[in-house]
Design a protein that fits this description.
This protein is of the alpha/beta class. The protein contains 9 helices and 11 strands. The strands form 2 sheets. Strands 3, 4, 5, 6, 7, 8, 9, 10 and 11 form a 9-stranded mixed sheet that branches. It has a two-stranded antiparallel sheet with strand order 1-2.
């Protein structure tokens, strides 16, 4: 048995128990609000196919499947350890109603051409592609946790590579959705280039008067619409409380989606 299958793990409930996630304990990237906000960007009805690039243990993809009863989700992850956690999540009895609509691909999102196709990421398949790419740049403090470092460490031309793959595997008119640090906005816009248009960018603020900590970005493959900077999303209404605002709590627990304005 590979050594990573012997490490401590937790089983965590999301969406008020509508799905559960197996995650490494005390190491690696732990899924939380970022994944739930990312999942909320998929606003769809009926049968829809979704790829979660760099899925980790699968939190965002499972959140989409839990909220959208007809969605089929493919989790794409290069780490054998993290894809193994995702597989264990699909084997949980608590996820029995979701497992049949979720598939796994162990592949590097940065593959190109025939290597990408051979890994299972074929052209023009998905209606939605979601991603939470690594966000730490070279100047950030290094973590001694190798598994977490792999999930968080940004590489050169990361957004160009990831968004190129998203454009290749997505149907014309499909939606790209991602969550990132605000400092990455220029790279994201450049990477979308002529592949994607109609960008909608929502800054996410902890509280009124504080700086944004995340941006939510959606874009449409082949669109020529101009960029739209949306109203900010405030995590907390009360400056003295850690309680989420009502709308953010709905997004976090799968009771609402965050639809595009340009639908």
């Amino acid at each position: 048995m590979p050594a990573f299958e012997q490490t401590a793990e937790t089983i965590d409930a999301f969406h008020r128990g509508r799905f559960h996630l197996v995650q490494p304990k005390g190491r690696g990237h732990r899924a939380g609000m970022d994944a739930m906000l990312l999942a909320s960007l998929v606003d769809a009805e009926g049968a829809v196919s979704v790829a979660d690039l760099g899925a980790g243990a699968g939190a965002a993809g499972l959140a989409v499947a839990a909220r959208l009863a007809d969605a089929r989700v493919t989790l794409v992850e290069r780490s054998p350890e993290m894809i193994a956690y995702a597989a264990r999540s699909l084997g949980l009895a608590e996820n029995a109603t979701l497992a049949g609509r979720i598939s796994l691909i162990e592949a590097d999102v940065m593959l190109t051409g025939r290597a990408r196709v051979a890994a299972g990421l074929v052209d023009d398949v998905f209606d939605h592609v979601i991603m939470n790419p690594p966000f730490n740049d070279a100047g950030d403090r290094k973590t001694p946790d190798a598994l977490k470092a792999e999930a968080h460490a940004m590489t050169e031309d990361l957004f160009e590579s990831w968004i190129r793959t998203a454009g290749a595997i997505m149907v014309p008119g499909g939606q790209l959705s991602l969550i990132a640090r605000p400092q990455s906005i220029a790279e994201i816009i450049d990477a979308c280039g002529r592949r994607f248009g109609g960008l909608e960018v929502t800054p996410v603020y902890p509280r009124a008067g504080e700086n944004a900590v995340r941006i939510l970005v959606t874009a449409i493959k082949g669109s020529r619409a101009r960029l739209n900077l949306r109203a900010p999303l405030l995590m907390h209404d009360d400056p003295a409380s850690h309680k989420f605002s009502a709308f953010v709590d709905d997004l976090n627990n799968g009771r609402a989606s965050y639809p595009r304005r340009g639908r």
